[in-house]
Amino acid sequence: MKFLQRTIRILIATLIFPLSSHATPAANEKPLLIYCVDVEGGQATLFITPMGESLLIDTGWDGFDGRDADRIVGAAKDAGISKIDYVLITHYHSDHVGGVTQLAARIPIGTFIDHGDNMETDNAPTMTGWNAYQKLLASGKYKRVSVKPGDTLPIHGAEFLIANGGGKVLEKPLSNAGMKNENCKPVPQPPPDHTENEFSLGFVMDFGNLRLVDLGDLPWVKELELMCPVNKLGKADILIATHHGFNGSGSPALVRSIAPRVAIMENGAKKGGSPSAWDIVHSSPGLGALYQLHWSEEGGAAHNSQPEFVANLEGPDTGSYLKIMARPDGSFDVLNSRTGKTISYATKQ
Questions:
Q1: DSSP 123-167
Q2: What range does the domain containing 253 cover?
Q3: How far from 88 is each of 7, 159, 204, 312, CA to CA, in Å?
């Protein structure tokens, strides 16, 4: 009998302890952090993987006494990092590349990633940003990598795959995508946009079971190349609303097909947040929340989210940000720094 009891205890221990040792690291695993920094209608989105590598998407505006660079550095300090490993410049408009020189003066940067040369040479503000970026690269202090659709960024801890850039999009669907898109029925489209927006870099980030989509300022007609007749991107948990929620992007074919659980609109008070674009995102099936960096003056009472989902309310800008804490099981939290409150989103079933 004693031998039998001992054998049973050994069997139980064999079954229990491997499960316990496996569960403990998962419970203590660091989240992937995403800071949506308020740069007044530009873009500055900072990713920090659990392995400590950092990727900044764009640098906001130039000028304003270094306001945007200071806010980005503030987010980096909150995340506990003192260097940005990679800075991806989606395109060369002032609200995306403008702050690059001021940022480089405030924090070490490893490598710049872009889509190649500026394609909007007849626009003075765009040329100003492009020339400043070229001067910075000419200093010899930084590496530069130009990428194209299908490339994967050299970042550890999460996969960042380029979906669009240089005027092209993915040729083939991702492995878990490719379904016929029922949202491709004809609807009135905005005018074509042949500026640098057309060449904007965008990506899909996979972190375990969690997927985030950010297509930069990709125009509506280029979104259709990704989404019709089949959805090349699949479903997403988080969507960074294309082009700050401007009505030249954010087609139903994109938004309703990827069906995000949460959308983040990186708009300013006077830039982005167009009512028609807001309506498309807001009505997306399965959407749990639409967060905004700013209350949109154009949107008014009918086309803005409830205050708990807005980082900066109507009135003087406070520079508040949104912080996402994501886990590989697909669950994540969103902190509104203005309110100090966090809302959690469970693993999708």
A1: -HHHHHHHHHHHHHHHTSSSEEEE--TT-B-S-SSSEEEEEEETT
A2: 31-345
A3: 59, 14, 14, 25
The domain that holds 166 is classified in CATH as: 3.60.15.10
Residue 338 near residue 313, CB atoms below 8 Å: yes
Q: Please report the DSSP string for 232-246 in residue order.
A: SS---SEEE-GGGG-
Residue pair 288/309 in contact by the 8 Å Cβ criterion: no
Domain total in the chain: 2
Q: What pLDDT tens digit does each residue of the chain (349 aa) get?
A: 443 344 334 333 333 333 322 333 344 589 999 999 999 999 999 999 999 999 999 999 999 999 999 999 999 999 999 999 999 999 999 999 999 999 999 999 999 999 999 999 999 999 999 999 999 999 999 999 999 999 999 999 999 999 999 999 999 999 889 999 999 988 888 998 999 999 999 999 999 999 999 999 999 999 999 999 999 999 999 999 999 999 999 999 999 999 999 999 999 999 999 999 999 999 999 999 999 999 999 999 999 999 999 999 998 889 999 999 999 999 999 999 999 999 999 998 7
What is the bridge-based pairing of β-strands 332-336 and 322-326?
antiparallel
